[in-house]
Amino acid sequence: MARLAKWKDSPDRKPLLITGVRQCGKTYVIKEFGNRYFEDVAYFYFEGNKGLASIFDYDLEPERIIKELGSIVRGKEIIPGKTLVIFDEIQACPKAITSLKYFYENLRELHIVCAGSLLGVSVKRDNVSFPVGKVNRMQMYPMTFSEFLCANGEQELYKGAGRFEPGKELPELYYVPLRKYLKYYYIVGGMPEAVKKWTDTHDFDAVSELQDNILQDYSNDFAKHAPKMDVPKLGWIWDSIPKQLAKDNNKFVFSHVKEGKRSAELEDALEWLSDAGLVHRLEMVSNPALPLSFYADATFFKVYMSDIGLLRRKAGLSHRTILGESELYSNFKGALTENYVLNELVAQGKHPYFWRSGNTAELDFLFEDRDRVIPVEAKAEIRTKAKSYQQFCKKYRPSLGFKFSMKNTGENMTEDTKTYSLSLYLLWMLDRYLNVADTDKK
Q1: CA gap 148, 310 in Å, rounded
Q2: Count of beta carbons in the 10 Å neighbourhood of residue 437
Q3: β-bridge pairing 410-413 and 418-423
Q4: How far from 89 is each of 53, 366, 415, CA to CA, in Å?
Q5: Among candidate residues 50, 224, 237, 30, the one with its CA nearest the CA of residue 121
Q6: How high is the mean pLDDT of the chain?
Q7: 115 or 442, higher pLDDT
């Protein structure tokens, strides 16, 4: 909401395009933003609405479009500066996407926000003339753990934990409930409807039933929006993700998706899932030099799901297993933890990779921060001994690194590397740690 308010008042404002996986809360946030900051909200939903889309068929002249949207479709005038115009599921009308260029050039005083769940898919599929450089972009993700805390009414717990200086241990008053809520988050995840079901009922079975519905909706999208020849492939890949993450070496292997199928036959389907925001690809870097993207190996990667609660449900993992800390769950718990860390990093605007040195060492995550490469080791439990992390630090001598685990916060300084132990339930504080380390460096 703060970012939307900043966009509203920016002198360089362009039409805003908000993308994100289906059902992550885009429409709710945009409407709430309009109600808080504007006298009027004009909402238009494109999916399945051919009459609305036909307004963009004649030409893409903004004055005419807004006049017809106001007088014919809405029955109420749209006033630039006072009315927020919302184009929802804009990917269903490619010409509306193209029109944003002309809104920017010819009607800049109008505030226009667009939402699209499958925009990346549609732009490629329909060969849309995308208004490059004429729109502002914002990506939405499922709710993070800190947002989950606040949704559970634990704002004071969130604020209180945030008051502790980086590296200082949290007292039991904080870490006991935070650990409890992190377990709940592993079960519920961050899909807003699932979070609301949990906060309303505190019934994990009801949450699981709702998650099943969301997963089914995603599968229905495959049949509705993907090329027919790719629909079975999407299902195979989608179903294989939890299985591939559960392997000791959780590199994504196309031949493990479906017997007899090769990467050339499945790559387009995986790209579709990525464009739809349903999965994240984590590529390998063997030479951790800047920029990391230059040294990434696009052929060697892992695949994670965009929501940890949906991963838990798709894997068929009972909430009782997570709450009871069953020993039989120890292997998959590592995969679940990695998926959680990845989602938190991505939601904070990081672009993570992982590092591997032949078959001798593997580091869970790397990301860039200012002029630094930051190594990260993620552990599901309290143990933080990590040979690969030590090997990486010895070889490349980074100034800063992190160990994420259930261990309390702390710090350690070797000859070259300052290592913070950051609790998994405090990952929202990562930027604060990075800023402190940067200040110390200066």
Answers
A1: 15
A2: 22
A3: antiparallel
A4: 11, 34, 53
A5: 224
A6: 94
A7: 115
The pLDDT value given to residue 250: 84
Amino acid type, 32:
E
SS3 405: strand
Alpha-carbon span 215 to 209, nearest angstrom:
10
pTM given for the model? 0.94
SS3 183: helix
Is the separation of the CB atoms in 147 and 193 below 8 Å?
no
Q: What is the pLDDT of residues 368-387, one digit of tens each?
A: 999 999 999 999 998 767 89
* pLDDT (tens digit per residue) in 308-365: 999 999 999 999 999 998 888 888 999 999 999 999 999 999 999 999 988 778 999 9
Query: What value, to the nearest 5°, has the Cα angle with vertex 14 and ends 126 and 110?
Result: 105
Radius of gyration of the chain (CA): 23
User: Measuring CA to CA, which residue among 90, 98, 118, 108 is closest to residue 57?
Assistant: 98
Give tens-digit pLDDT for 31-81: 999 999 999 999 999 999 999 999 999 999 999 999 999 999 999 999 999
Judge whether 206 and 197 are in contact, CB under 8 Å: yes
DSSP 323-382: HHT-GGGHHHHHHHHHHHHHHHHHHTT---EEEEETTTEEEEEEEEETTEEEEEEE-SSS
The one-letter amino acid at 319: H
> What value, to the nearest 5°, has the Cα angle with vertex 239 and ends 232 and 332?
165
Q: How far apart are CA 66 and CA 63, in angstroms?
A: 5
Beta-bridged to residue 226, according to DSSP, are none
The Cα–Cα gap between 147 and 127 comes to: 36
Peptide bond into 15 cis (omega under 30): no
Q: What's the rounded Cα separation, in Å, for the pair 236 and 240?
A: 6
